[in-house]
Every structure is written in C-alpha cells, then in structure tokens.
Amino acid sequence: MKHAPSAAQRILVADIGGSFVRMAATGTGPGDIGAVQSRPTPTDDFAAFLDALSDLARGLSAGVEPTAPLILATAGLCDAAAGTIQAANIPCLAGQPVARLLSQRLGRPVGVLNDADAFALAEAVQGAGRGHRVVFGAIIGTGIGGGLVVDGRPVRGHGGLVGEWGHGPVANRIPETLGRPLERIRCGCGQYGCADTFGGARGLERLHAMTGHPPATSREITVRWRDGDPEAARTIALWAEMLSEPLALAVNITGASIVATGGGLGRDEALMATLDRALRLRILSRHEGPILHPGRIEQAALTGGAILGQQMRQSL
Q: Which GO terms describe its molecular function (predicted)?
C-alpha cells in the first residue's frame, strides 16, 4: 500500500512557465506529487509575481514543515548562489533577488533550478539514469538544453551555467551526409552555428528547408521519415550527423555513462535510436548498448525540484 509523504518529507516546488505557475507539495519518490495548484504567471509585474508565488505557497503549506524549502523550477538562467532567474518569457524577474525576497516573505528557504537541470536530476535519481554515477540530461525540444548530475547531485556552474551544449559555434560547415557547404545560422545568443539553430524542432525544419525541400513541420518530417520518404530520410540523416557531434563532445567532456533525453524530439524513441547510432560513432568510450535513453519521469520539473529541496534541507 502506498503512503503519502509525511510532513518531514514534503517540499514545495513551483514549475514556472510563461503562462502558468504550477505548485505542489511533493515527496521525492516516484509519483509522490501532491495536488497541483496553478495560477497565471504575472510576467511583467514583479510585485504581482511575488504575490502569486506567496499565495500558492501559503495555500499548500498545510502538512509541510515551516522550514521545508520552496524550489522554483523554470526555463532560463538560474543562478543558485545569487538566487536570481533570467527568463526571456518572464521579463519582470530580470535582476531581482527573487529567492531572497520570497524567503523573507514565507520564512522558509527558497532555491532556484533551471528546468533542464530539474529534468536531469529527476532522471538521474529516479528515471533512466538511476544507478549511473554521471548522468547528462539532453533536452531536444523546440531548442536544445542540458544539465549534468554527478553522484545524484546537480552540478551548478558559474552564474548558473552548466550543460549548455546547445550554444557555441559547433555546426559542421561541410557535413558528410550533405557533401557540400552548409550556411551557419545566427543563434539567439549572438553566435553562429550553435546546435540550438539546427538540433531542435525548429532547427530540424530549418535543415529540411535549407537542403532544398519544401517547408514542413518537424512532426511532418518525422512522420514521413517513418513512412520511408527519401527526402525526410536525408534530412534526418543530416540532422543526426550534425547533432551527434556536439553531443559527443558533451559526453567526452563530462564522462557521462548515460544521456537521458527530454523534450518533444528527445522522447521520440525511434529518432533517439537513430541519433544514438550516430553518437556512438563519435564518442571515445565504448558502450555495449545505447547511451541515449528517453526520459521516464512525467513531471520532471516538480520531481527534480523536490529532490533538490531535500538535498537543501539536509545541508541546512
């Protein structure tokens, strides 16, 4: 019989998106996520943002110890040391010490966690990477992101940056699959040729168009690929070659023995098997089986946040 987590095990976790804030009192075991409450995200009003988070936390505080942390999981740059969040879709957070101010309001510790780091932590402790010492989490969705977990703890880099394999001028100028020069595209970060420009869903669509095919959505391309369409097959082969190169570099640098993949494309098992074959040709270590494994945890932001919260509690 499954028992609900005790107050001593519960953590408050907020999954903050550009449209809604979702918060729950969670445990750290599989499925130990309580009832989720939500409200619209005040993206342009910082005072209203603090009010929304405070109201949600107070509404969920019954059965949660007063000293239990609140973890804020969101996309963007999350600096754990400064307690700040820089998120393009929530401009009111820019430069604000959100963790400190919420902690003062609520009387409990508050931590911040990038959603890719939350995914990597959830998968390392409870999901696809369980039992592995070094786990790399690769988000392959609309764009490219990542996180690194070592010995069950997230690696928190300088300024909140770690695992960002999607940025850096890495695009192969003359891919073997194409056999001719391919233009490097300017990335939103300001550089040219980042994996973010060709590796995610929008990047896959861009590659398809750049190689002379009619415009198509990533879903249309992958469906046609499964159906044996030769144009889609060429696009997928080019995509797998190009994306496996920066991912191989990430694996070689971190020493990860497994890569848990998330995001829309990252949860596609057939697509990840294709990328895995290209990846294993390019990494230094040898693996008997696949190194890429689609993630297993459904609510990774809440689960990863709960795990981080318990680690924070133990260190206090």
A: hexokinase activity
Residue 234 dihedral angles phi and psi, to the nearest 5°: -65, -40
Residue given tokens 């342009």 in the structure block: 44
Q: Please choose, from the candidates 315, 314, 311, the residue with its C-alpha nearest in 3D space to the C-alpha of residue 152.
A: 311
The CATH number fitting domain 7-118+299-315, selected from 2.102.30.10, 3.30.420.40, 3.40.50.2300, 3.40.640.10: 3.30.420.40
Quick one: pLDDT at residue 144? 97
Residue whose entry in the numeric block shows the structure tokens 């820089």: 86
Residue 37, helix vs strand vs coil: strand
Class of residue 175 by CB neighbours under 10 A (exposed 0-12, middle 13-18, buried 19+):
buried
pLDDT of residue 34: 85
| pLDDT, average across residues 79-92 | 95
The stretch 184-194 carries a mean pLDDT of 94
Contact criterion met (CB below 8 Å) for 208 and 284? no
- What string of DSSP letters covers 212-238? TPPP--HHHHHHHHHTT-HHHHHHHHH
Q: Does domain 130-294 correspond to CATH entry 3.40.640.10? A: no
Domain boundaries, the chain: 7-118+299-315, 130-294
pLDDT in tens, 128-142: 999 999 999 999 999
Give the chain's mean pLDDT. 94
CA distances (Å), origin 56, targets 155, 252, 255, 282, 300: 29, 42, 40, 47, 20
Residue 127 Cα distances to 175, 224, 230, 258, angstroms: 34, 30, 35, 11
Q: What are phi and psi of 300, to 5 degrees?
A: -65, -35
